[in-house]
Structure formats: structure tokens, C-alpha cells
Amino acid sequence: MPVFPSVEWFDAVSRSFNSDEANRTAGGGIADADVGIIFEDQVFLLNFAGYECEKASVIQRSDLENTDFYLEMHPDDWIEMLINIQQNGTADMDYTLNTLDLDSEDGLAKSATGDQYRLDKFFRFNQTMQYFFDASSNVETEFDREITPA
Amino acid sequence: MAESEEKQPTKTTPPPRRRRNLKIDHDVEVPEPGYAWMPRTLEWGVRVKPGAKGMTMQGLNVGIYGEIPDRWDEQTRMPRGAYPMAGIPPIGFALREKREVWADNAADLYEEAIQRRWIPASDIPWNTLEPLPDDVEAAMCQLCTELSQAANVEFETIGYWLQHMSYGYHEVKLFLASNMFDAGRHHEAFRKRALANGGGLGIESKGEINRMILESKGGWSETSLLLHLLRGLFIQTIYRYGERFAHNPAEKVMFARALEDKARHTAYGLQHLRYAVTHKQDKALVFQQLLNIGERVFARELQEPVVLEPLAVIFGGGIEGAKAGMREVHHMMGDFVKSYLASTDWIGIHRGRAFPKGLSRYLEA
User: Fold this and answer.
1) What pLDDT digit, counting tens, does each position of A30-52 carry?
2) How confident is the model at residue A144 (pLDDT cuts 50, 70, 90)?
3) Which of A98, A120, A127 lies nearest to residue B267, judging by beta carbons?
4) Which pTM does this prediction carry?
5) Which of B111, B114, B124, B171 would be B106's cystine partner, CB 3.0–4.6 Å?
6) Cβ contacts (< 8 Å) between A126 and chain B: which residues?
7) Does residue A20 surpass a pLDDT of 90?
8) What is the DSSP letter of A68?
9) Interchain pair B260, A102: CB under 8 A
10) Can you tell me the distance from the alpha carbon of B307 to that of B144, in angstroms, rounded to the nearest whole number?
11) Which residues pair with A38 in a beta bridge?
């Protein structure tokens, strides 16, 4: 069972996301974006191209400058979001990426370079990012800690 | 009727396809075809292959078909790369300079718009709407009336400018056609929401900014500055908060999908305005002067209660919570002003001290 977060976990989610053609409809579709993921001191890169998430890899924090934007939350908030998705099949009203972005003090989506144009891809491809994390409901996931939901 | 007695379809041979015969009437004199049009091409033998995203408009920009001139002198509807014909009366396009319309991302944004389209009638789960308290329903209907009308202004404005853009820059014309269609979809979606849950349409604001946008005739770039940057980013911010404070999945989906479209319009606006600034020396100054006026009109119009008050009621969960809701409105406006100033910086337009207090006050905690 893949552990969140890990390249193995992101690969499993990518397989589910890439194979579901429903993710290409109703606001989904082609998305070209390099997205960073920060979970404590671990940093990952997701390369979205065309209809798919092509690759997941581990990167250094300094590499975030090359991303369009990155997503950073408190580790408990990451886990809480994923548990919500697993329980509902998709994120419910309180756990969509946009809602979490507005609800967190520092925001969820950030730019390492302050480039507003690239940061706007978070909104342009918001449904694709949502479909991606919603696809994690199909992946049996192990977390490295217990959390107490807020 | 017993199953065995049911009439079974009989197998018959389908009749032959009926086609009109090409009859040759030898009594009618037909001129011998000359096929003079056939060799008239500037580049033949082009074989564009589809890539990972299919056969894209950007992919077609090969050979002479990908040569995008800084000025398009052809005054007819001749497509870029086609064989020019003599004697065609001019149409009189006003916008013939690349810097007046261009954005490098236009072709890709067009593909994005086409591939990421959605359908308000069936993609929004309308059956999840449930009765809301009267004050909240009234606020949502008022907001949707404003948003629907803003979208209406958007497609009408672009419609005016499209006919003035020369055919050399078809990528931009295509993208803006999709922008118009998106705006039509937003007009539709918000009108549907207003009329779907026991409420109705509210009032439209006086519409000073709407008039400024509709009556902006100085140039497409100047119109895009007001439409995509100033008002566009404001609407985009409202969509974000609309998604956050949605009362049901229907509203959630409606605002989320509209947000994606609006961010795409912003992406064109940012790229185009930056292109305009970097390709004409005094353009940044022109934009500064125009924003000095536009921002003040915009700030003044915010004093009208028809947008921010309904938002406060929605955010606060009703009239009783509207005071707390107004604090959230302040926060929303702060988000808008921050992204707006980051965008003007990105384009190369200095705001600084000219930025009106009516907007900068939202940056204060």
C-alpha cells in the first residue's frame, strides 16, 4: 500500500487519473502545468501535460522556482483532505482545492517566483487538479501519522 | 400477445442508395474547366501531424503558415498563408499591427477553451439546489444578476472588436471567439441560478464600468485593459469566493467552472497587455493614464450596494451575519487588489501613488 506522500503514491494516483476519460470532460481537459507539492520537508514535482499527469518526482525546495505553482499545507491538512476524499469519493464542499486555498492563512497555491501569470494556472486548471486529487479515492493509502480532524 | 406471436422483423435487402446521376446533356454547352485556381498556393505538400494534444492550431504554424508578420497589410479576408488575389475590395480593418492584438498564448488558450468546455444545462447538478432563507436567496439572486450582466457586457464588447481585427492574426480572433462563447455561458449559468431556486432577477448596478468597457473605442488593448485586467480579475475573485461560500454542489460547480474560464481570459489579457507594453514605447504610460481613471470609476462604483452587500449577506449566512460577512468581503477585496497589483507589475504598468485610496484601503488588515 503506497504511503502518502511518496512518488509511488503519486504514480498510483496518476494511473487512476490518466485512465479515467471522465476527467477530460465537464471542465477538465488538457492542462500543461508543473506543480510542486510540499509536505513538511518533502518536496515533489508533478508534470501535467496534455490530458495526463506524466511524471511524479522528488525535487529540492530550490527547484520550486521552475514550477508554475506549488501547493503547500500543514501535513494534518493534507491528510484530512485525502481522508475526506476517500470517504466521499470526491472532495466535499469544504475540501475542494479552491476552498482550502481561501481558508488557509497563507493560501494553498503559491508561486516561488511571484509570477502571477504562472500562478494563475492554479485557477485555469483547477478542475484538473481537483480531478487528480479526487482520483486518490481509488488508491488505498497509508499515512505516516494519525491526525485529529480539526 | 404471446412471445411466439409477436411480429418478428423480416430481413430484407436494403434498397440501393439513391444518388442523383450526373447526366450529360450534349445539347447544353458547358465551358471547358480551366482549373486556374489549382496551382495557386504559396506552399504545397504540408503534412501536419497531430501531437499529444491532437491536431492543434499552434501545430499548424509550420512553414509560411507560421510566419506571423508584425504588420498585416492585406485589407481583405484573405487567410494568413493563402494565395493573394488582385482586385478584392478592401474591408478596412482598423487593427493591423500585431502589437494591437497579439498574445503568444492565444492559439493554446483557444485549444484549452475548446477542450475544457462545460455545459451549464447538464454539468451543473441543478437538482442539488435546496430552499435557502429568503435573505440569502435574495443576495445570491442579486449577485447572479450582476454577474450575468457583466458577462453580457463581455461578449458584446468582444463582438464589437472582433470585426476590426485583421485576418493575419486568426489565433487571437479564434481565442476571442471562445472568450465570447464563455461569456455567453456565464450569462446563461448565472441567469439560470437566479431563476432556479424560488428567487428571481435583482437589479443591475448603474453600470459605469460596464459603459466604460462598452464605449472604450481607443483601441483593443485599452479595452482589454479594462475588460480582462481591471474588471476581469475582480470577477475572477468573486468566482473564487462564490465557490468557497457555495450553499450546495450546484453553486459549487457553477463557480468552479466559471473560474477556470475567467482565468483563461485573464491569461490572454496579461500576455497581450505585456506584449503591447514591450512593443510600443509609450504604451505603459497610456495604460497608466487609463487606469488612473478606470480604477477611480471602479472604486466609486463599489460604493453602490448591489455587489458587495449581497456578498456580505452570502458570506455571513444572512442579514444577521452580514457585518461579519463584510469583513470577509474586505478580505476578498484585499485578495483582488493584491492579484491586480501583481498583474500590473507583471505587465509592466507602474501603479504606485496613483493607485486610489478607494482600492488600496483593502490592503489594510
Assistant:
1) 889 999 999 999 999 999 998 89
2) confident
3) A120
4) 0.91
5) B171
6) 256, 259-260, 263
7) no
8) S
9) no
10) 10
11) A43, A72
For residue B364, what are the CA distances in angstroms to A59, B278, B331? 36, 32, 9
Residues of chain B neighbouring A103 (CB-CB closer than 8 A): 244
Q: How confident is the model at residue B3, as a pLDDT?
A: 44
Nearest CA to B220 out of B287, B175, B158, B270 is that of: B158
User: Judging by DSSP bridges, how do beta strands A42-49 and A33-39 pair with one another?
Assistant: antiparallel
The A-side interface with B (CB below 8 A) comprises 24-30, 32, 49-51, 93, 96, 98-99, 101-103, 114-117, 120-121, 123-127, 130
Tell me how far the alpha carbon of residue A18 is from its chain's centroid.
14
Which residues on chain A are in Cβ contact (under 8 Å) with B123? Answer: 26-27
Task: With beta carbons under 8 A apart, name residues in chain B contacting A130.
Answer: 256
When the candidates are 1.10.620.20, 3.40.50.300, 3.40.50.150, 1.10.3210.10, the CATH number that belongs to B104-113+127-364 is: 1.10.620.20
Write the CB contacts of A38 (distance below 8 Å, at least 6 apart in sequence). Answer: A61, A64, A70, A71, A72
DSSP lists the bridge partners of residue A34 as A47
Q: What is the ipTM of this complex?
A: 0.91
- Give the mutation candidate from B112, B244, B344, B345 for the A interface (greatest A CB count, under 10 A): B244
What is the structure's pLDDT at B4?
A: 46
pLDDT means over runs of 10, chain B (365 residues): 50 73 76 87 92 89 94 90 90 91 96 93 96 97 96 96 94 98 97 96 88 92 97 97 97 96 96 96 94 95 92 96 95 95 94 91 87
Name residue, grid cell 481570459: B265
pLDDT value, residue B18: 76
Answer whether B158's CB lies under 8 Å from B94's CB. no
Mutate: best of A99, A103, A104, partner B, most B CBs <10 A: A99
Give the H/E segment covering residue B324: helix B322-347
Domain residue limits, chain B: 104-113+127-364
Asked if residue A145 lies in contact with residue A86, where contact means CB atoms within 8 angstroms, the answer is no
Chain B residue numbers with beta carbons less than 8 Å from the beta carbon of A99 are 243-244
Interface touch B112/A130, C-beta < 8 Å: no
**Bridge partners of residue B213, in order along the sequence:** none
Min CA distance, B54 vs chain A (Å)? 9
DSSP at B32: P
What does the pLDDT read at residue A14?
Answer: 96
